[in-house]
Write a structure and sequence with these properties.
- The protein contains 20 helices and 22 strands.
- A 12-stranded antiparallel sheet has the order 7-8-9-10-6-5-4-11-12-13-16-15, with helices on both faces. A 3-stranded parallel sheet has the order 2-1-3.
- Helix 12 runs antiparallel to helix 14.
- The radius of gyration is 28 Å and the shape is elongated.
- The protein starts with 49 loop residues before the first strand and ends in a 12-residue tail after the last helix.
Length: 565
């Protein structure tokens, strides 16, 4: 769900901001850097409310009031960056099943969110058009926006109500001036005609705007406006100005929200697979991921993120089976930790990445390993909580990569990385020897061996004629037999305009477990690359990283670089 937004890729001519996987996040907590503070009695829980600060400086006073701030033990949940008042659901009709709260930074695309908004509007033009049809959403005075989702008469397709909050009190007249085609409609013309809303009075899909307090006096100064289907906003008088009632589990999580956060999503998971199922219908991979990650016993889910000064993310889950929440927390952590390996296995088994995001996608496993390094999972107030801090620069890359990884059009399980199926008699195709002599440029600060090989394969696919690309893979079984890790880190790899075979030999030597080797032809050079027939493409070749022992036992031909003179 954090993958709803953004990045600009190297292949489109824009610099990609990679996560520095070999350094700690800024201001990583050090032993003795925080002071223990007793939690207030009002926060008694079934599990400890101890948190650790993500900064050596003293924690925010409001945070200290809610949590006991301890020194970091490597396991305790991170303390949030701030602890503002909880959100309210005033001006929302009853029946809301999901609500998204967005700050000014998110809504107007400022600061770390600027790239996210641009990418989202470019890749999701239909959603952008739908938002453009809703009045007032482009008002420059907006401070924050909340979007409530409701069941509708169209099965699976929810209705939305927008609550717009202005930075400063604004006159109703100035707001009405921005409503084209809307007319005043009193709730009770014969009684209190001063209470009502503005409606476009369309026969179908009628929209209305309700002012704070349902007022109509043009001179009145207000800070909030509700916009949504007339049939929903017409029920606001039933609440007498109070907040929309929620199911008990959602209400419990709403009380833990922080109105100083940049993005907050509160949702009943059952809504995502019922009345709101069309939200995920176009993304079957994401739909399956959410189904697998969220047990049927989970009644409510809360996702919170703050973008500055560092990127903070928190997930809260409330289950109806409180006896099993410890087991669920353990399963959740395991599922998150296995994301990088699962993605790499998909790459190895032939999943191809769309050129639009290939450079970023191949780095995705390392990004997720960095996230997992700082991930904390625990129990608090009978809820499963997971949170993490990362540099703000990581927002673009992780968000877009997570989104693209669940987008069917961005990946294909029926193709090989670097392989472009073409007729065997393609006159432009190069032989494998010609390909190995082709000049290639590849550089990166740090990648796993798996990702490094896929980056090379992608570069080959883009720099040689169509029909010439070769697949590349790692012989995991042979590596395992000799205790060689396929996910080992390769650092400071830079090769500029060198033959592919030279580049592959350099990679093999860097991956070799014996670090004293000076020449690839030495017997202690255990990692080698070889050329094989590609079993998936008739008449084509593939390049594989394997071990010298395996190659010799199967009497495979070693490249000249690995043969002693």
């Amino acid at each position: 769900l954090f993958g709803l937004v953004v990045t600009v890729l190297v292949r489109n001519g824009t610099q990609t901001k990679s996560i520095a996987t070999n350094t700690d996040i800024p201001s990583t907590p050090q032993p003795g850097s925080t002071t223990s503070v007793a939690p207030p009695e009002s926060r008694t829980t079934t599990a400890s409310n101890n948190r650790v600060a993500a900064s050596p400086s003293s924690p925010n006073d409001s945070v200290s009031e809610l949590f006991a701030i301890d020194t970091d033990d490597g396991q305790s949940l991170w303390a949030p960056p701030h602890a503002g008042s909880a959100y309210s659901l005033e001006m929302f009709p009853a029946g809301v099943e999901a609500v998204l709260f967005a700050s000014n930074t998110i809504w107007n695309g400022r600061g770390p969110a600027s790239g996210l908004n641009r990418w989202w509007s470019q890749t999701q033009p239909e959603i952008a058009k739908q938002f453009a049809r809703v009045p007032l959403l482009d008002d420059s005075r907006i401070q924050s926006v909340a979007i409530g989702l409701y069941p509708s008469k169209n099965p699976g397709l929810p209705q939305a109500v927008f609550r717009v909050s202005f930075a400063q009190p604004t006159s109703i007249d100035s707001i009405v001036n921005g409503l084209s085609g809307y007319k005043w409609k009193a709730f009770d013309p014969k009684g209190n005609a001063a209470k009502g809303l503005w409606s476009n009075e369309l026969a179908t899909n009628s929209m209305s705007v309700a002012m704070d307090g349902l007022q109509s006096d043009g001179a009145a100064m207000i800070k909030r406006v509700a916009i949504g289907p007339t049939e929903l906003l017409s029920t606001l008088p039933d609440l007498n100005g109070g907040p929309a009632p929620l199911r008990r589990q959602l209400e419990t999580l709403l009380k833990t929200t922080d109105s100083r956060s940049d993005l907050t999503l509160l949702v009943a998971p059952s809504f995502l697979f019922g009345d709101g199922r069309e939200l995920l219908a176009g993304f079957p991979t994401l739909q399956d991921t959410v189904r697998q990650a969220i047990d049927e016993s989970i009644q409510a889910m809360l996702v919170t993120t703050s973008l500055e000064p560092r990127w903070y993310m928190e997930l809260r889950l409330l289950s109806s089976e409180t006896r099993d929440i410890g087991k669920f927390a353990s399963t959740l952590k395991t599922n998150l930790i296995t994301v990088p390996e699962t993605f790499e296995q998909r790459l190895s088994s032939g999943m191809a990445l769309h050129p639009y995001w290939r450079a970023l996608g191949l780095r995705y496993p390392q990004m997720m390993r960095t996230l997992n390094r700082y991930l904390r999972v625990g129990l608090e107030d009978g809820q499963v909580v997971a949170n993490v801090y990362l540099p703000s620069e990581a927002i673009d890359n992780i968000a877009i990569a997570s989104w693209m990884a669940t987008n069917p059009s961005a990946v294909s399980n029926n193709a090989n990385v670097g392989a472009q199926p073409t007729p065997a008699n393609n006159s432009t195709a190069k032989s494998i020897e010609e390909i190995l002599q082709s000049p290639i440029t590849v550089g990166f600060e740090q990648e796993s061996l798996e990702a490094a090989l896929q980056l090379i394969a992608g570069e080959v696919a883009e720099t040689i004629p169509p029909g010439s690309a070769v697949t590349m893979s790692i012989d995991g079984a042979s590596f395992q037999k000799e205790g060689i890790t396929r996910n080992q880190s390769i650092r400071g790899f830079k090769q500029n305009n060198v033959p592919l075979r030279t580049l592959l030999t350099d990679l093999a030597m860097r991956a070799n477990p014996v670090t004293t080797v000076k020449s690839a032809s030495e017997r202690d050079q255990k990692v080698v690359w070889i050329v094989l027939d590609d079993p998936d493409r008739a008449g084509a070749k593939k390049i594989e990283l394997t071990t010298r022992t395996n190659a010799e036992s199967k009497k495979l031909v070693l490249p000249k670089e690995f043969i002693a003179p």
